[in-house]
Design goal:
The chain is 13% helix and 40% strand. It is mainly β and 92 residues long. It has a single domain, classed as SpoA-like (Surface presentation of antigens (SPOA)).
């Protein structure tokens, strides 16, 4: 297997950023397990970001399709792309 084939099979962690919140250091230090952070729907951006190693790798939007929540990728590294990837998460 060549080096490029190994790179293509390498897994990376990606974060789907739904919104960004600001905290004071005191508020951040006071957070505990099972705390609930309130997010207003008005605070939700129309576009989400997919980050890899802290850098934006793609942009997209949230969809509900066939009863599943999806992230539709609309932009990938400065190139337009229309590809949907299923993302599993739970809503509490």
């Amino acid at each position: 297997m060549g080096i490029s084939a190994k790179i293509r099979r390498t897994h990376v962690a990606a974060n789907v950023v739904l919104c960004r919140l600001r905290f004071t250091l005191a508020e951040l230090a006071a957070l505990r397990a099972q705390d609930v952070l309130e997010v207003e729907l008005a605070d939700m951006p129309s576009q989400i970001e997919l980050e890899v190693k802290g850098k934006v790798a793609a942009k997209g939007r949230l969809l509900i399709k066939d009863g599943l929540r999806w992230v539709e990728i609309t932009e990938l590294a400065k190139r337009s792309l229309r590809r949907s990837l299923p993302v599993a998460w739970t809503v509490q």
